[in-house]
Design goal:
191 residues; alpha+beta; 9-stranded antiparallel beta sheet; 4 helices; 9 strands
């Protein structure tokens, strides 16, 4: 969830053992918010494919969340960089997913990939949202995202990294392009 239409997050791959260990620790230090099952369909326009960049930095998705449907657009920065720091994010709830898919098809958008994940969400000190994700075909991940303004992207990232270190996680580089790009790399759609 973006704060003021800007998302600042760190998404790290985990082993099953790390996933279980972090889950236990989060249950002690953070507030459990919810469990959800999510399905995301990613699209690109055929006339200006998002995949033309070496490192795609734009995504359009239809997100299905517990009976709700959301149209989501993200633009990552820095553009065309393997590792990004933040993105502009805009989304809106949609009433009829079938009509939305027809609109996208009429505008020459095509579906690239669909991925599914099981997500457990925690809140830490009302400032960080932590999601533990089990993503079908990709594995286990943690996503730590800011829920408030830390003053700058750099300061927000410092807070996120400081928090992940308390979980004994030392990675600082997010999954390039997120789950969609990881799945597309796996399927040979992007490098």
């Amino acid at each position: 969830m973006a704060h003021n239409n800007q998302e600042i997050e760190l998404k790290l791959p985990l082993t099953r053992e790390q996933f279980d260990k972090v889950s236990k620790k989060l249950q002690k230090i953070a507030k459990f918010v919810k469990f959800c099952h999510q399905i995301d369909d990613y699209f690109t326009p055929t006339y200006k494919s998002f995949l033309l960049a070496k490192y795609p930095y734009e995504w359009l998705s239809i997100r299905k969340r517990n009976g709700k449907v959301v149209l989501n657009y993200k633009h990552w920065y820095p553009e065309n960089a393997k590792y990004t720091t933040h993105c502009d994010e805009y989304d809106t709830e949609v009433g009829d997913v079938e009509q939305l898919e027809k609109i996208l098809a009429a505008l020459s958008f095509r579906n690239l990939v669909t991925f599914e994940k099981k997500r457990s969400v925690f809140l830490y000190q009302n400032s960080l949202e932590i999601a533990l994700d089990e993503v079908k075909e990709l594995g286990f991940f943690i996503e730590v995202e800011t829920m408030k303004d830390f003053g700058s992207v750099e300061e927000a990232r410092r807070e996120i990294i400081k928090f992940t270190k308390t979980l004994d996680l030392l990675g600082t580089r997010t999954v390039p392009g997120g789950y969609a790009a990881a799945l597309m790399r796996q399927k040979g759609l992007v490098k």
